[in-house]
Design a protein that fits this description.
12% strand, AB_hydrolase_fold, DUF3141, PHA/PHB_synthase, nine-stranded mixed sheet, alpha/beta, 13 strands, 17 helices
């Protein structure tokens, strides 16, 4: 692998960003790649490493299967039963659902605004919060993933009781021409309906959309929280970035336009899922083999089912929107360079002056931490009002993982709450009591099985 490109030192920002857990510094010139100058070499190395991981997982599972077979030698039909149960469990997929009670208060052909505010809290003196889920071929229910693991529930319990979420609807023939302008308009309509100003939380692709909105409408954003959101799409070592450089760099947008055309004008959600699985195939192999090993453990099977229902139930993405983001963000990286224009307006990240909170995953292979933390260098927010945190884990765990929801999100939402209404009461240690409430909103992770996820 080639050596990393490092930029000349830049003047330090006064005071530096506020760090609530170890976060890597980003020594990187915006818009320039970091970690590899040879995308082909990186992809070959990455895929070779993944192939080795898949082989190791198969070897481990094979050994476990032989041991299990020996232990069950007196029950030959049990293996058949377990195999059939394993196969039927893998094939039994259901549509993911919202778990917390909510009301749709605004609806368009491509998006809906859901109000999760409980009746008793509708008049609370607190700035409302809106969550923008990822828009990458999966259901928006990831932010209300299960009764035990819900980002919405955690936010409500932190004292931000007036909370909303945008739901991205599956693309249809009628909505295939939906543009980024349309997405920004529905965000603006939602926030105006909520009162005109909101705390904006953006996950993954919902994060760069939130950043663009905050840059264009800074007066409507009270605080901006981004999690696993690419801002500098070329920073760090990323298989998505490398693949885009290779594909678009040699053939332009033709391959992407062909994919959209083959699916009737929309980007296929199944194709997006295949790409996610191809990026980290060892997670898929491990998840299915661990299901076989634990097929008689109802707790493990239920956790597997909940994840698979969300992960494998895909939805198409509007073709016009998909092609725009590939060209302008993934390929040309215009957001970080300041070249991005939407509706005749330049998107200036320096226009963002509200408190900014950034959460990255230490092993996030979709959005490496440098892509996330690059935001700290380009926003106009004073350094003292920028908070960074690195969670232990990967990409999806940032939004629905029980560890991140119990340990990484609560301190960030405490800070947001501090900017949003009456000061939280303090206990004898001086820590806001809101944090204990938000931690209790998520299931205790001890002694419960984990399901391998990307």
């Amino acid at each position: 692998m080639s050596t990393a490109m490092r930029s000349p030192a830049r003047p330090a920002r006064s005071g530096g960003p506020r760090v609530v857990a170890d976060a890597p510094t980003v020594d990187h010139t915006p818009g320039q790649p970091v970690g590899t100058t040879d995308a082909w070499r990186y992809l070959l190395s990455y895929n070779a490493t993944n192939a080795s991981k898949v082989a190791n997982e198969v070897s481990r599972a094979t050994g476990a299967a032989w041991l299990d077979a020996v232990q069950r030698i007196g029950r030959p039909f049990d293996a058949v039963r377990r195999g059939m149960l394993w196969w039927s469990t893998m094939a039994d997929r259901r549509e993911p659902t919202w778990h917390l009670q909510n009301e749709v208060v605004l609806s368009t052909p491509f998006a809906a605004l859901r109000d999760f505010t409980e009746e008793a809290h509708r008049d609370d003196d607190v700035v409302p919060t809106i969550v923008l889920p990822p828009q990458a071929g999966h259901s928006s229910t990831v932010v209300d993933y299960s009764p035990q693991q819900s980002q919405i529930a955690m936010i409500r319990a932190s004292g931000l009781t007036r909370v909303y979420a945008l739901e991205w609807k599956p693309a249809t023939v009628a909505s295939k021409n939906t543009t980024v302008d349309d997405y920004l308009t529905v965000i603006d309509r939602s926030i105006r309906r909520m009162g005109g100003k909101a705390n904006v939380v953006g996950d993954c692709q919902g994060g760069w959309l939130a950043a663009i909105y905050a840059a264009l409408y800074p007066e409507r954003v009270n605080t901006l929280t981004l999690a696993g959101a690419p801002i500098d799409f070329h920073a760090g070592e990323s298989v998505i970035s490398a693949t885009t450089k290779v594909t678009a760099g040699t053939m332009g947008m033709a391959p992407y336009k062909a994919l959209v055309a083959m699916n009737g004008g929309n980007m296929s959600g199944r194709a997006v899922l295949s790409n996610f699985i191809g990026i980290q195939p060892q997670s898929e192999v491990s998840r299915q083999l661990q299901l076989l090993e634990n097929i008689d453990d109802p707790t493990h099977v239920e956790r597997y089912r909940v994840f698979e229902d969300w992960f494998k139930y895909t939805q198409d993405v509007p073709g016009a929107f998909y092609l725009w983001l590939v060209e302008n963000l993934f390929w040309k990286n215009k957001l970080i360079t300041g070249e991005l224009e939407i509706g005749g307006r330049r998107v200036d990240m320096g226009a963002i002056t509200c408190p900014v909170l950034l959460l990255a995953g230490s092993t996030d292979h979709i959005t490496p931490p440098p892509q996330m933390f690059a935001a700290a260098d380009v926003v106009g927010t004073p350094a003292k009002d920028i908070t960074t945190r690195t969670a232990t884990g990967g990409h999806l765990g940032l939004f629905m993982g029980r560890d991140a929801l119990r340990h990484d999100w609560p301190p960030l939402m405490e800070i947001v709450y501090g900017h949003s209404g009456p000061a939280a009461t303090e206990d004898r240690s001086g820590k806001a009591s809101r944090r204990r409430n938000s931690v209790r909103a998520v299931e205790d992770p001890r002694n419960t099985p984990r399901v391998p996820a990307p």
